[in-house]
Amino acid sequence: MGENGAGKSTPIKIVTGLYRPDHGRLLVNGEEVHFASPRDAIAAGVSAVHQERNLIPRFSIGENIMIERPPTRRGLIDYEAVHAEARRFLDMIDPSIDTRTEVRRLSVAQMQIVEIAKALSLEAGVLLLDEPTASISGHEAEALFAVLRRLRAEGKAIVFVSHKLEEVIALSDRVTVLRDGKVALAGEPIAAMSRGRIVSAMIGRDERVADIGERKALSGQPVMEARGLTTTLGHRNINFILRKGEVLGLYGLVGAGRTELARALIGDARITEGALLLKGAPVRIESVSSAIRKLRIGYISEDRKGEGLILAHPIRSNIAITVWRRIVSRVGLLWRRSENEIAEPLARKLEIRTPSLQQAVAKLSGGNQQKVSIAKWLAAGAEILIIDEPTVGIDIKTKTAIHELIAEITRGGVSVLLISSDMPEMITLADRILVMRDFSLVGEIENSRRYEPMSRQIMNLIHGVAGDGGRDAARQSVHG
Q: Are 454 and 445 in contact (CB under 8 A)?
């Protein structure tokens, strides 16, 4: 464990042959080894799921899973065997995904599941997992934990890196904590550790609980309303109301259609039936640019590095990008001064840690990158902000800051549609929670912020086991 930038991923990259160590020795089964590449590590029985995805977008899921050792027949790849073998490992986590689907068509969470299945397919003696549950829901995480416990019982050795304390405590035998590239806690038995001691070792002080303030009863005007929406992506009869200054949660398992619904709401997919209303007036969102410029709808993607930010560009440009049309000169030039005037106050307000706004976004921690993503939509004057997985790969201290930031912008009148696979995060932030299954809304719950009863209600709706009264109340709520 450790905060963003503490140095957790670096040892994994050394162990798997991506980096060379400057000093010290690496031993596998008591024997000193020198890995020149990841293939050397694989040959020695060391497999890894890295934080950065390493899949070939135009290959099928099956081809990606079996790429290191594809089954052959008479010197040719046996594709039937490829998919049969891939199916065996994919079923351990999520049997609903078709192995013949191209990876580029998957959500971020589904790609993560494929990465895990790919690592499992190598059947290595040492398995290294770097943030494997960052973008998957609790249901898929539990399936992964069952597999890991079975592998442990078979004698496999597992290194599990996670920001989620509950996962580490539930799964691990021992815990090591890194802080600023150094060991702050070394191989302590998990049974002797408390949450507070682990957090103190990570951040150098006691944990601070997010202060989201007192949430007012929701009586604000509807700013977005969906009436019977059907989309080209497969959604059917979607009904909901988002009110001014509200955090409306959207929860479901991987593949439930949450991100796809968000994309339809910003014009990245077509709405074929029903009506979408903004401030009571029907609208037709023809493109993403019209959603941003004309309707003031912002979208923070779950894939902030691939879709949300231009990593090679400076912070100032990433924040100002949504208002370039407004600040461009008469001769079509963008001046650094104009970008700085937009970016500087927002960087101060959001406490983006950087020596300069000239710094490339790629060099920021995950938490500061997410703050830049939020800042660019505040710069655009977004009135509705769709936030997809706001704290994926973000440490405890920074997660608290992001939660407080989301609560603060809603107090300023921004309405948030929040998609998260992190149940505690959803229950901390959302005022109401919509539950999705199979591209349909199956219920709506007022958030009491009491974790146990709320999580039970949500999972009952997902699995369709709510009592009749619960189903009737949910149905009535969804349909207004």
A: yes
Query: What pLDDT was estimated at residue 470?
Result: 43
The tens digit of pLDDT for each residue in 197-255 reads: 998 888 787 766 677 777 665 667 899 999 999 999 999 999 999 999 999 999 998 88
User: What pLDDT does 207 receive?
Assistant: 65
Name the residue among 185, 289, 219, 248 with its Cα closest to residue 431: 248
Taking residue 257's Cβ as centre, other Cβ atoms within 10 Å add up to 23
CA distance 409 to 229: 28
Structure confidence at residue 472 (pLDDT): 42
Place of tokens 């989201």: 212
Residues of the chain with pLDDT under 70: 207-209, 215-219, 465-480
The Cβ of residue 43 has, within 10 Å, a number of other Cβ atoms equal to 11
436 in Cβ contact with 458 (< 8 Å): no
DSSP E strands in 68-141: the ranges are 72-73, 76-77, 126-130
Q: Answer yes or no: are the C-beta atoms of 267 and 305 closer than 8 Å.
A: no
Q: What is the pLDDT of residue 244?
A: 93
Cα dihedral value 11, 14, 18, 23, nearest 10:
130
> How far is 454 from 447, CA to CA, in rounded Å?
7
Angle between helices 366-379 and 396-411 (to 10 degrees): 10
Terminal Cα-to-Cα distance of the chain (whole angstroms): 44
Burial of residue 27 (number of CB atoms within 10 Å: 0-12, 13-18, 19+): exposed
- What CA–CA distance (Å, rounded) separates 11 from 108? 25
Residue 112 tokens, joined: 């993560």
pTM: 0.71
Report the candidate in 147, 136, 145, 87 with the shortest Cα–Cα distance to residue 113.
136
What stretch of H or E contains 224? Answer: strand 222-231
